[in-house]
Recover the amino acids of this structure.
């Protein structure tokens, strides 16, 4: 209590400056806590599965083209082979994610729901706890497992086990179980799951689930022991070649626990933000140390007086750390309260559902305690160890401050704080430019004002009638029927040949189907020839496919695709699809078939958008009243391709604001102390005729020099880090020095404005009062 009372009395002696110091530390800790919340959520992905150390994933990759092409899945025959051929594998499971929503009808309620397809063993491998029922009988096809929210939507709070759910107006499914809602930080997401055998509803082939091609099946394995993984990883590569010797489709295994962070490269952003957290915490602590060193004259003399009455160095270190520990605990407590209160806003900003309760486990709590101890140790290190080391006669000397306390140490702290701010600002500017570049880049067609309608139920078979009716609607310029939206085209293969082709060259070619109005509706660019018409057979290829073939002209030439001859009628410019971070892949476009008619894409008048949507949905409901109308906008789907970059921009921007607040608060506190210590000097200078402007410049100049020196370190470091980040994008901006100059100017401008405000107050003080000041 005595130490607490003493600390509070010291705070009262310099309220404003100490308040700025604590506020800067609190702001820095809030920023660090939010980064910690985000990093903890990212690193906890999929970690709730109890058997996670024994789960692995097998996926395929192609090597026949100019570069390796990876798939998320592999052929359906791989899963059963794993269990049959490897004694190290306890179980295996094939899984098809919810690429498209399906219609579920039950108790008079119908909704488009995310339905996945899976082997029954999914529930043996993953921790998906049941509320009601079980996983059902693996031999039964007509069964369904719902999540809690899905079950509640259809059946309320009652137990739905045994009740009937109709799937896509085609098949009745019996509810066999209800599981808890799947956590947001899970790679496996669905609202309901049905047996994989039901895929035969869409593909009338007996061998659909036994082929050694078709890489659409995500495949999991459960090891009897984690040590068995090495054997699988080293021997699985050429398993497909045992069945199909000419195949260029190879297999690779990785541990499921590494999937989200390392296979999907999310660890890159985790490392970036962990570095930012360290830098911001360092800046906040250095600000706090800066304030403590600014008080070093009084603190040193106080230390000398304590030594003169018998205090040992150990007593002084203990006293100093008690005071600093109290202040740091106060700052951490305030930061935690503010961070928790602001967590809903933070979640809304970054699109996550982070709960404070997720931190109440051993590892996060241990990290928080460690952060507190490190902060306390660093903040108290200078007064505790450095100032307590001087002799009594040195600390009581009136000139102690001028000899010991100014110069290298404080300038080093200022340089470090500026360096952190410049790194964060430059990173924010670069990420923002890259995100804007992706948003505004030429994707090969005009994605604005494109409305799409999913052709569900009778809309598929009556697609042409729907199109004709829609084009008679006011506000619709044109429309086209397509097998996929141009943003997510998932059908591809190696089965293309042409005259002069190297037999070893087997590029992966995307297969897309549209009607004759694609060019008109999407505004795609025709390079050569024409686009096919409804009565014209043939294919149109994209520029990437044309470049891979290498001919000088293509119109009228023949390509062989999967055993069929196709005449090339035209070449279009590349349409960017599936990923904006990769180079465009070869594409072959064929005339649409009734069975592949999945979407109607309409070019509409933006000024009549609401009226047009209402008319289109009315037409759809008249044709197919049993399905809800599923529509959206193509540009919204494109936005999902750079969603991670958009979130990253928001996060870095928020943390940059925090770092600038830390910088400003720290500078205010330091300038207040410096002005206080230079009060007499300022008074003498004014009496000798120096004007206020000159005095202000004299006070501001060291901070400008500190910022310039910091830039010499921060700019090369940021250039290196952000260049590595940009290398993962095939379509990317080029770094230039002006981005870093702008970051430097912003940091220095904010610092100068902050310092000038306090310097002006010091320079305009009455010199008579200044000369009487002691």
């Amino acid at each position: 209590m005595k130490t607490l009372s003493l600390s509070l009395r010291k705070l009262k002696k310099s309220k404003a400056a100490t308040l700025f110091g604590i506020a800067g530390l609190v702001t820095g800790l809030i920023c660090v806590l939010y980064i910690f919340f985000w990093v903890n959520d990212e690193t906890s992905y999929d970690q709730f599965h109890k058997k996670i150390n024994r789960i692995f994933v097998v996926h395929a990759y192609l090597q026949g083209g100019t570069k390796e092409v990876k798939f998320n899945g592999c052929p359906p025959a791989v899963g059963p082979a794993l269990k049959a051929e490897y004694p190290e594998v306890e179980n295996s499971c094939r899984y098809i994610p919810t690429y498209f929503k399906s219609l579920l009808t039950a108790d008079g309620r119908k909704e488009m729901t995310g339905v996945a397809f899976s082997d029954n063993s999914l529930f043996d491998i993953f921790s998906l706890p049941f509320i009601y029922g079980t996983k059902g009988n693996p031999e039964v096809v007509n069964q369904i497992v719902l999540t809690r929210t899905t079950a509640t939507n259809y059946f309320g709070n009652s137990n739905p086990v045994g009740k009937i759910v109709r799937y896509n107006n085609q098949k009745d499914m019996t509810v066999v179980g209800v599981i808890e809602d799947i956590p947001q930080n899970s790679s496996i997401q669905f609202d309901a799951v049905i047996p994989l055998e039901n895929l035969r509803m869409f593909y009338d082939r007996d061998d659909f689930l036994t082929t050694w091609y078709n890489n659409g099946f995500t495949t999991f394995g459960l090891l009897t022991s984690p040590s068995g993984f090495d054997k699988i990883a080293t021997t699985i590569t050429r398993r497909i070649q045992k069945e199909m010797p000419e195949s260029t489709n190879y297999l690779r295994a990785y541990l499921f626990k590494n999937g989200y962070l390392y296979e999907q490269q999310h660890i890159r952003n985790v490392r970036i933000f962990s570095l930012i957290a360290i830098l911001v915490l360092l800046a906040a602590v250095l600000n706090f140390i800066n304030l403590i060193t600014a008080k070093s004259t009084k603190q040193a003399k106080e230390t000398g007086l304590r030594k003169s009455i018998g205090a040992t160095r150990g007593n002084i270190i203990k006293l100093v750390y008690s005071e600093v520990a109290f202040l740091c605990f106060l700052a951490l407590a305030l930061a935690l309260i503010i961070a928790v209160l602001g967590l809903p806003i933070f979640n809304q900003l970054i699109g996550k559902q982070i709960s404070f309760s997720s931190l109440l486990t051993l590892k996060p709590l241990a990290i928080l305690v460690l952060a507190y101890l490190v902060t306390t140790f660093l903040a108290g290190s200078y007064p505790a160890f450095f100032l307590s080391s001087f002799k009594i006669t040195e600390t009581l000397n009136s000139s102690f401050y001028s000899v010991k306390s100014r110069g290298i140490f404080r300038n080093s702290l200022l340089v470090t704080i500026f360096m952190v701010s410049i790194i964060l600002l430059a990173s924010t500017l670069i990420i923002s430019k890259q995100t804007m570049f992706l948003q505004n880049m030429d994707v090969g067609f005009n994605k604005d004002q494109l409305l799409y309608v999913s052709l569900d139920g009778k809309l598929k078979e009556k697609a042409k009638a729907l199109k004709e009716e829609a084009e008679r609607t006011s506000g619709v310029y044109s429309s086209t029927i397509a097998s996929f939206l141009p943003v997510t085209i998932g059908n591809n293969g190696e089965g293309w040949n042409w005259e002069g082709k190297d037999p070893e060259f087997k590029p992966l070619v995307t297969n897309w189907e549209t009607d004759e109005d694609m060019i008109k509706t999407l505004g795609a660019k025709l390079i050569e020839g024409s686009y096919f018409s409804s009565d014209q057979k043939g294919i149109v290829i994209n520029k990437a496919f044309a470049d891979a073939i290498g001919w000088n002209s293509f119109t009228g030439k023949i390509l062989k695709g999967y055993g069929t001859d196709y005449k090339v009628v035209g070449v279009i410019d590349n349409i960017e699809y599936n990923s904006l971070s990769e180079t465009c892949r070869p594409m072959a476009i064929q005339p649409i078939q009734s069975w592949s008619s999945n979407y109607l894409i309409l070019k509409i008048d933006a000024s009549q958008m609401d009226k047009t949507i209402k008319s289109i949905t009315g037409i759809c409901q008249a044709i197919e009243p049993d399905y809800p109308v599923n529509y959206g906008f193509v540009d919204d789907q494109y936005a999902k391709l750079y969603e991670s970059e958009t979130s990253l921009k928001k996060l870095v921007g928020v943390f940059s604001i925090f770092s600038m607040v830390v910088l400003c608060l720290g500078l205010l506190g330091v300038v207040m102390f410096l002005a206080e210590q230079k009060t007499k000097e300022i008074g003498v200078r004014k009496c000798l005729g120096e004007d206020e402007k000159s005095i202000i410049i004299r006070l501001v100049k060291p901070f400008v020099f500190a910022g310039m020196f910091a830039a010499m370190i921060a700019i090369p470091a940021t250039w290196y880090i952000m260049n590595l980040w940009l290398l993962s994008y095939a379509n990317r901006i080029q770094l230039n020095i002006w981005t870093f100059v702008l970051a430097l100017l912003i940091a220095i401008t904010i610092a100068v404005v902050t310092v000038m405000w306090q310097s002006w107050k010091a320079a305009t003080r009455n010199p008579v009062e200044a000369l009487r000041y002691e």
About this structure: The chain has four domains: 1-43+271-406, 52-263, 422-442+639-774, 457-629. Residues 422-442+639-774 form one domain.
